[in-house]
Amino acid sequence: MRLIQLACAAVLPPFVLALPSSERSHSSRSHNLAPRASLSFPIERVPSTRSATSLRKRQDLHSNARVNLHAVSITLGGQAVKLYLDTGSSNIWLIDTDFQCIDIDGHVISKDTCRFVDSGFDVRTAGGAKIDPSFFNTGYAGGEYMIGVGWTSDAEFNGVTIKDQIFGVVDRAHWAGDGYTSGLFGLGSLYTNQIYTNSSTVPVGDDSRVVFPNPVTEAWKQGLSNEYHTLALNRVPFDDEHDGVQPAGYLALGGVPDDIKVTGKSATVPLIKWTVGANGAYIDEQAWSAPDWKSTFTFPGSEDITQELVTPNMDTGASGIGLPTAVHNAYTPQIANTSCDGSGMPPLAWNVNGLDFYFDPLDLLNKQGSNDCYFQGYDAGATGAAL
Ligand SMILES: *[C@@H]1O[C@H](CO)[C@@H](O)[C@H](O)[C@H]1NC(C)=O
Ligand SMILES: *[C@@H]1O[C@H](CO)[C@@H](O)[C@H](O)[C@H]1NC(C)=O
Q1: Which of 385, 1, 386 is closest to 186 using CA atoms?
Q2: 76 within a domain of the structure (yes/no)
Q3: Residue 80 alpha carbon to ligand 1 centre in Å
Q4: What is the pLDDT of residues 20-71, one digit of tens each?
Q5: Rounded to two decimals, what is the model's pTM?
Q6: Which numbered atom of ligand 1 lies nearest the CA of 197?
Q7: Signal peptide: which range, if any (predicted)?
């Protein structure tokens, strides 16, 4: 998900990049991977049609497209929930069981319209406590937004307990849900946390921002894991045999998950310490690392265009592939057709540190109907990119 307030790409938490090789590539390099993870949590993938057209502000978003939702299971305040895993935004939140679904203007509409799964966070019986006073308010690029309060309670991940995790509990939501999750698990930069220590009538700003690490960072701060974490995702093509819930890989804390084999080439990229927040907030003690590498794209004719070097936003919460304008403009006209077998797509690679990682042609497409596919690339701006 792309947060509304971000003009630039969200910065990721510490991240080790190990990409599978492509058959098209023959080069290899030695590489050092992070240590084996101390904790690994399964991720599920659910294909979902987010068809709530009326929620969309942006007309260029395909409203009936199938999205691959990644979900994690977590227990917050004693209540087990599934949350939408999103590396492209920062907040962790879930709905209050008594939440109201609202339209774009804030009018209450049928709860079903929001398409949350039929559970949430029951503030009457949950462990932990409300942060009082507090105000949670976030919004996403698709026009969705939510309003609620801040809450603190223990979080449990597969039996591992993280103390005093802060998250948002939503009482009003304008949301095009997936029918499977009841909230969102944001792993982006903590500089865009949007819980504030005051009531909703007081203007929000950095002075009143509650800066809260996500559970992954809390696990490290609480000595439960090393500082690395890895997201290892399976590729699940979109054919009809893959309807339903699929194992999608692991969120691994403290390194790389045990049973992930990196074959062929991989790229290791440096991290830098990152200190100044997107909104000017400076939180030295909590400074995070950011990926410090630049990449380009390779495709027929790419040598003829001038490419800005870009650091893509790695976003598990958004469909589509954001390409820099020059790349988008030169690549798109070469698409012969968007046949669902991928045969009409010219080769496209993401080049990292000089290594080409080719996209599978099927991953460049999204499916709206059994034989109805479209190119899921979009223009992400002169220096933008999102994968
Ligand atoms: C909250 O609002 C009250 C009333 O406007 C103000 O006096 C107080 O300083 C605010 N607190 C914070 C932490 O912003
Ligand atoms: C799509 O384009 C490819 C490459 O030109 C071609 O082989 C294929 O037959 C085309 N498919 C359709 C349905 O037009």
Answers
A1: 1
A2: yes
A3: 34
A4: 333 333 333 334 566 788 888 999 988 766 544 434 333 344 445 666 788 9
A5: 0.82
A6: 13
A7: 1-18
